[in-house]
Amino acid sequence: METNALIYSGIAGAATFSGILAVLWRQKLALKYSHYVNSFAAGSLLTLALAKLIPEASGLTSSTTLVVLASFIAFFLLEAVVVSHSGLEIHFQEGPRRAALAKGPLIFSGLFLHSLVDGFVIAVGFAVSFELGLLAAGAVILHELPEGITTFALLLIRMARKTALILSVAVALATPVGAALAMGPLGSLSESGLGVMLAIGAGSFLYVAASDLIPETHQGDIPRNVVAVLLGAVLMYLTVILLD
Question: DSSP secondary-structure letter at 218?
Fold first, then answer.
């Protein structure tokens, strides 16, 4: 379990780093096409949470619904604190002008924590089964690429290029770090405890999809974004069925 979690969380971190490189190469083009990747990831995350993580957690603990709800609300409150103290909106519908109001350290803190949670979810998945870990890692990898684009682009607005690059790389590294930190405690959890962890992961995926990714589908070419959401949902559902 430990090796798989580290390998796949490392791949997720590499996906974030790829997004950073895309901004270094062609920022406008990277931001333009990140809408499609975000849309595909939204469909994938929603489907994985609803079709696999929640049912799997329900088989391990009776408190799944409550934990998913609490997790969703906790992530909402956490992001609300970051937004209220930074002026940040994690999208570009009004261009860099609004994003420029944000405070760099708070942007970094929120995105770093988000990547830590992604690593945690990957580790939880592999603690339950290889198939579930693979599904969780795939969903995380899909949205880490556009996250790398968004992270670096936002930080570039508020700070020097070198500082923005260093902090963005730290966000990329947070995913494998989160997986590594989770592996020790997960090894001693009961089945019920693993179910609770899965439910927390499901709440995290639902919140990221609903709050961060779905709003991005309303930008750019909306019909194509809708197709990407549906494609992500269908492919993830088929993958869940094939791996069951």
Answer: G
Q: CA 167, CA 109: separation in Å to the nearest integer?
A: 10
R_g of the chain computed on alpha carbons: 17
Pair of tokens at residue 31: 């931001």
Structure tokens at 201: 């992961």
Buried b / exposed e along 127-149 (16+ C-beta atoms within 10 A): bbeebbbbbbbbbbbbbbbbbbb
Distance CA 109, CA 117 (A): 12
Question: Mean pLDDT for the chain?
Answer: 85
Rounded (5°) CA angle 62-66-68:
105
pLDDT at 87 over 70: no
Give the separation between CA 205 and CA 47, rounded to whole angstroms: 10
φ, ψ dihedrals at 89, nearest 5°: -125, 120
Which residue's structure tokens are 């198939």?
A: 131
Q: Beta strands of the chain (E only): which ranges?
A: none
| Residue 119 CA to its chain's centroid (Å) | 9
pLDDT at 85: 53
3-state secondary structure of 62: coil
pTM of the full predicted structure? Answer: 0.85
